[in-house]
Amino acid sequence: GSGAQAEAKETADPEVQALQAKYQKLKDVISGKTSIMLYLEFLYNHNHADLQILKNIKSVVDSRQSVCHSATVLANALMHCGTTVDTFLRDNLDWLSRATNWAKFSATAGLGVIHKGHLANGRALMAPYLPQNGASGSPYSEGGALYALGLIHANHGHDIQEFLCTSLRNTNNEVIQQGASLGLGIAALGSENAEIFEDVKNVLYTDSAVAGEAAGIALGLLQVGSATEKTTEMLAYAHDTQHEKIIRGIALGLALIMYGREEGAETLIEQMTRDQDPILRYGGMYVIGLAYRGTDNNAAIQKLLHFAVSDVSDDVRRAAVICLGFVLMGVPEQCPRIVSLLSESYNPHVRYGAAMAVGIACAGTGNRDAIDIITPLLSDAVDFVRQGALIAMALVLIQQPESQVGGFRKQLDKFINDKTEEIMCRMGAIMAAGIIDAGGRNVTVGLRSHSGHFRRTSVIGLAVFTQYWYWYPLSYFLSLAFQPTALIALNADMLLPKLQVACDCPKSLYAYPEPITQEASTQAAKLPTAVLSTTVKVRERQRKKEQEKLLKEGKKLEPGTSKGDEPAESLAMETDEAPEGQGQESTSKGPEEAEFHMLDNPARVVPSQEKLVRFPDDCRWQSLKPGALAGIVVLRDLRPGEPVELHGGGSEGVSDGKGGAQGSALVESQDKEEEEPLPPEPFEYVPP
To answer: Does residue 370 surpass a pLDDT of 90?
Structure first.
């Protein structure tokens, strides 16, 4: 192979080169590199995360409370997931340095979430935290950095596996072993690599509680969905060890191994659900949930319901209810009905599970019934139930039109600013604030691909995320479940032509929420449930008058003038519900509030908006395969002779890719990366 390649380079035969370029392009597409690069570029250029929200959280959270401090670091990581923007951390280094021990581990791992998909510079970014010239710093930041490298290379880990393996072999420190195990599990997810499996298993057998827990999960990640016969060996070890953490790690690992196996997991389910050890029964619930994920299998649902009401261990009952969410993922509209009685259980663990189940099954749908079930739990008497409800609500409302989310943001503010509120609950509110604005407000929880298949990485990310209950650093797994809500249209050369698509709804409906101003930060939107102070009421009244006046004139508030995000919201709602006649009337007066608007390529298209997006009638481009315009769409050119205007990195609405205002070396290096495999001259693409 390599000799032939060298010859080809010497001969420099243009045909051979063109062919090589074609293969390279194909390889990049299949290995996922192309899409990772495109999404990275998109999330960087379209980042709308609001730093003011983080500043407000930081100002009210006592940094001596490590729980809330860590939650804030997590919220920042999720808000900037995949955007490579770490401004908040750079601006608050002294505040960040208050994180010690495991909090430091988590904070370093958070960098991996922020730089997720940044394959070119992943190692360089984490270098400061890794041992340099053999001298190692803190084991916590080093372990966190290895975990971060796994997160950066999620779904594309072959370049980093070797390095993580070496790091794992060369250490006896349980903290570093934990980071390396988790990192390897994510980077080699589902690779079933025997060599790595042995390395991780050796860590498991050192019988160190902390490292063993991560090793158990990592074994599951490596062998995900393979139903390997090594499960018997793992189960035997779970019975031998004295450490609950290791048993729990193995229990979850076994569930991951049985992912999607349905009946193939029955023997293991029987063994685990009948075990005397509640932790293994807990794992058994996850085996049912993941083996039957999205199948809404009747027997599985009945089994989970049975354990949810009858098991003696609260943990098992909670897990049973949570796993209903995984089984019902395929029919989200059914989930609220099935867990509605459980959400009124006397047992707080079951109520927490009900909230989470709905959050998981209905993630990103904005389903009304789901919201109705979670809402009463937001004012539950028990702190951790409120925590679960806040996180679940954020999962359900992610990427919903701001008119539906405004009220919830208000509630989050209330929880976060209330110094008397329980820590558990404030932690949930801070995490929820990160989830609702995840990925610079450009990602959703993508449990299914556009073709309707379940995304394995996303489902597993959510499953491991729910383990944050026992081990906070695992909450960073949620980043694996995020999928950019982007429409990226490519031509045959995998480049972005400049084009516009039409979206059949008023622009304000799916607009990004307004950035909060400092004084409006505490009161941003009107909410029926929160009790408002008199000043706010007066302000509301004035605003309503202003709005009605504007509506009569058929104008729309300029984004600059609105305080908070209220006017745009109610406007969106009114135009949305306006009867036909009115809508047309307003379009004739003010072109601003037209019934449709144009989006530039690439654009943010949220899931509920997909069915409204179409190519304009006179467009020279058409998508190659029918279906919703979402995700990465390859185009067919209807007028192939004409010159194509491409996105050269910078265009309006996109920060200049090549050293513009905020162009930074980062994007330049990406651009170089992307330009490498291009063919020497454009070749004709003949559709089959």
So the answer is: yes
